[in-house]
Amino acid sequence: MKKSIEMAGAFIGVIVGAGFASGQEILQFFTSFGWWGIIGGVIAAVLFAFLGMNLTTLGSRLNATSHKEVIYKICGRYVGAVVDFIITFFLFGVAVVMLAGAGSIFENQFNVPAVYGSLFMLVITILTLTFDINKIIGIISAITPFLLLLVLIIAGYAVFTTDLSAAQMNTLAQNQSGSAPNWIVGAALYVSYNLAAGASMLAVMGGTQKNVKIAKFGGIFGGLGLGVLILLISIAMLAKMDVVAGADMPMLLLAQTMHPVLGWLMAIALLGMIYNTAVGMLFAFSARIVPSTSKHFKWFVWIVGAVAFGVSFIGFIQLVSTVYPTMGYLGFILIVAIVITWFKYAGAKSKQPEPVAIVEE
What we know:
16 helices; about 80% helix; globular
């Protein structure tokens, strides 16, 4: 159980980056649809748990060292090649978003130019990638409980101090710009692009665990944990929609309105989650192209990091609203393939003949 929880923490840590923890992603894909977005959050939790379970389980069975083995197993040779390319490309895209998010936090919270924040995140991310994968998983999972505690505090504060009625919350929320045409598509897109981005690290995390049951529950617990965070952040923003409307980082703004110290703690937590995702994405992207055991791996990481740093100047909100929805639509291919694979495994198990009892004369 302990190992499953650690894997779940790492699962959450990889997915929860700048856009998620800051509230910007949740605002665009859930809260902008008002109270319907809460139902979307429940659907997302179930999908995260089911799909995460399948990826960590397959990773464990295949002893995966990158997402390639798992993707080709799920999608087959030809579709697998397309999905492999999509995932690899967007791993880089998400890493860019994380660097932009770090810059935004440094500028908004610490009054430090964004370029220095992005550069700081790049350097500590690359230095971390000199560790082995098990140490990386441990580091990523350690930060998750801290974020969960802060989100609980902020959500509680928002609910008990709101001046808005339920109808006002709904109206104000629906006036915000979203990244999907409706709440159902929003929930599906959100799971899809996060899964496409996180599939690589989920497969690798599963591959580090020989016990398939531990890997399976790690995926389930991680998915449910993500769902809880989505709901808490959505409720907090709905309750304070008159305050957070138009903010780059709504949850950080809420923390600052509660107390300056809490604002600093939330900024640190956000940087920690950005760091988690940046580490996961850069490692997975680099390991797919250059084996992590290669002597060229570290040099390749520095080159990729430098390119990502340059692209990050496009801007945080623009990157979130452009990269993520596009990735979500393409990620549907992966979701369909995972569901088909699950039915195949379930069907194969159901067709296995039951053992015949031997009766001694």
